[in-house]
Amino acid sequence: MGTRFDENHNGLIRQYLPKSQSLDNVTDKEILDIQNRLNQRPRKLLDFKTPDEIYSEMALAA
C-alpha cells in the first residue's frame, strides 16, 4: 500500500484528531476508541469490508 493509502489513512485519523491538536493530551483510551472506529469503517480498498472483517477472515483461515 503506498502513499495514497497513507494519505487517506492520515485523513481518516484527522477526522478525530485535527492537525492543530497536540497529541500530548490524548489518552490511551481515546486512541483505542479512534482505532476501533477506524477498524470498523468499510474501505473501498478492501471491497467495502472493514479491516476488522478482513482480520477475522484471515484469522479463521490460518
From TrEMBL:
One of its GO terms (cellular component) is cytosol. It comes from the Bacteria. GO terms for biological process: transposition. Signal peptide: none annotated. GO terms for molecular function: transposase activity. This is Integrase catalytic domain-containing protein.
